[in-house]
Structures are given as C-alpha cells and as structure tokens.
Amino acid sequence: MSHQEKIFGIHSVESFLLRSPERVLQLFIQKSRNDKKVEKIESLAKDAGIHIQLVDKRKMDDWVRGNHQGVIAEVQIVDAKMNEEQLYELVDKKKDLLLLILDGVTDPHNLGACLRTADAAGVDALVVPKDKSAHLTPVARKVACGAAEFVPLVTVTNLARTLRKLKDHYVWIVGTAGEATENIYQVKFSGPTALVMGAEGDGMRRLTRENCDQLIKIPMAGSVSSLNVSVATGVCLFEIARQRMI
Known about the structure:
The chain has 246 residues and is an alpha/beta fold. It has 9 helices and 11 strands. The chain has helices at 10-19, 36-47, 57-63, 84-93, 108-121, 138-144, 159-168, 206-210, 229-245, and strands at 2-8, 24-30, 52-55, 71-78, 98-103, 125-129, 153-156, 172-176, 182-183, 193-198, 214-217. Strands 7-6-5-10-8-11-9 form a 7-stranded parallel beta sheet, sandwiched between helices. Strands 1-4-2-3 form a 4-stranded mixed beta sheet. Helix 5 (108-121) runs parallel beside helix 6 (138-144). It starts with a strand and ends with a helix.
C-alpha cells in the first residue's frame, strides 16, 4: 500500500532524499532559508532531478503542524504496516525474532523516536494497541527520520490477546516495570523475544503486565526515578542487540 504525504523538517527530508529520492515528488523550500543544511537538501534534490519550489513561510505553516524548518517534501509513502496475521507468520519464520510493543504510548514524538531506535537495533516489527496509542502521523514520521517505512507497525485491537497468542507461538514476553526484581543486565535474552514498554508515569496496563513472562527494570543511579520512554526503549533494545552479537 502507498499514498502521498507531506513530510517536513531538515533531517526527515534529507533522510528520504538519501534513501528513496525516486519517491520524492516535489520539494518546497522556504524563500528566506539560505544555509548549508538547506543547500545540501537542494543539491540532493537537483542531483535526483526533483522539482524545487520556493514558498512563503506563512503558506508552509498552513500546510503542516509542527516545525518544518523551512523544508517540506511531497513524497510517495510505501506503507510498512502489516496486519496481525502477517505478524504471526513472521514469528513462525524468524528464529531470532525481536518485537517492540508499546502499551499506552500516546505521544507521536515518542512513537517516532521508538521507531527510529527500533530500526537501528534490528527490531522486526513494532506493535501498538488500536486505542490509547499514538499512530503514524506526519509528526511521528518526522521524528522517525524514515524508519517508519522500514519497521512494520502492527496495530492490534486487543493487546492482551495478542500477547497470549505470541506466547502460543513461543515468543518470550519481557515487560519493563520499576518494581521488577531483575535488571536488564542480569537477564539473558535468547530466542524469539518481545520487549514491552509502558507509558511514562502509568507504565503497562494490568492485563499487559499479567501476560508478561518476565519483568525487568533499568538500574537507576541518580535521583530521577524514570526515563523518557523512547530513551528507556533504546537502553533495553541495544542491550538485547549487544547480547545477540556476542
């Protein structure tokens, strides 16, 4: 599936031009922007034969919600989404499967950051519930810097039921909770694994927690009791990735 969409921001547009210039339909540059970052984007676009149009800032402000930084591109989005049945097919095929599950993460900035980290850490798919969750908005895509096209996003109606089915497919479900007795550096990650991250403050919902095989925490040395969910996700995913490289 594909559709046209406006993406915005220096890093998001530059990443798209580097990865998939053939799918950039038009590039819009703010008339008053004239610096090295914009010059690099213009150079990439010209090399790819992409039409560049100079536009007033006011018009660009009307086009998108968020800080466009004077750069907007109209692109052909190739959807990386998969449905739940396709997820189980993937689970059955991949021996070293790694899933990321976000429970109650409603900020699109956090979703985008988690997608970007998931791509870097080799996550096979990211799972979110249909309700009370952020979804792929232009803001989330901007923060993801292109990762939204490479990490499949699976939206499920009932997360607790999905967790039970994943366990039926021999996936080990690891949830993060401040009250866990083991920290992430004490746990050996092997085989198909799903990492569950809860919302900041509230954490995982009760049914989600009850369907986890194991609870872990990140050891905290300072006075702050918790990390931003996207930061915590990065810490956990890269510890799993580190162990799998040994």
